[in-house]
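We both want to read discrete structure tokens more fluently, so let's practise on a single case. Would you supply a protein for us yourself, any chain you care to pick? Would you write everything just below, so we can both look at the same thing?
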Amino acid sequence: MKILLLEDEPKMTRALLDALRRRDVLADHVRTIADADAMICTGTYDALVLDRRLPDGEGLDFVAALRQRRHPVPILILTALGSVDHRVDGLDCGADDYLAKPFALEELLARLRALRRRGPLVSDRNLDFGNLTIDPRSNEICIAGSVIEFSRREYLVLEALLRRPNRIVTRPNLIDAVYALEDEIESNALDAHISRIRKKLVLAGAAVEIRAVRNLGYLIRSRVQTAIAS
């Protein structure tokens, strides 16, 4: 899951980003509506989480503007304004969910999972290709019926590829799926992840392989197709 967090209070921001990172949720962070609008236009997110009182305006106005533009991103408002009238206003202006501060982290995560299931961008159904299966609900990867251990970032790379089998996924798109903006990324990090994934696929007897496409990115394809083509 990858979210965009629009929050200007430093203490709340640090606590949220740390908690989300520990739960394997990628989060890009911005402080202003203007920055959030730019990020939403260029990035792909499973959800937008935003406060209402922001340095450059009211969060609900931004929500209404996104819905006027028919932007499909699921939206959760996270704010201290928690009366019934406030919640009704938030939902009526186009938000999908509304959570008042203070809140329990587990409830926030559950609500984000619910938004992801309802959202248009990602499905929670198993991803099956050859004898490889990814379960997005449990984050388990099975090869020929056996669970194989992958690191968090290896899992994210493999999931991004498996959502577009037999199609090239560009390097920028893979990096966007695996890293948040604040992460420090070494120049060869993605290639190192791919190398380790390939070794695990071979050792586990996977019927798929990852192919590099020069100057573009990577794709995942069936080994049977490779044999026929050769």
The two ends are 38 Å apart (CA to CA). Residues 110 and 116 are 10 Å apart (CA to CA). Confidence is low (pLDDT under 50) at residues 226-230. The first helix runs from residue 10 to 22.
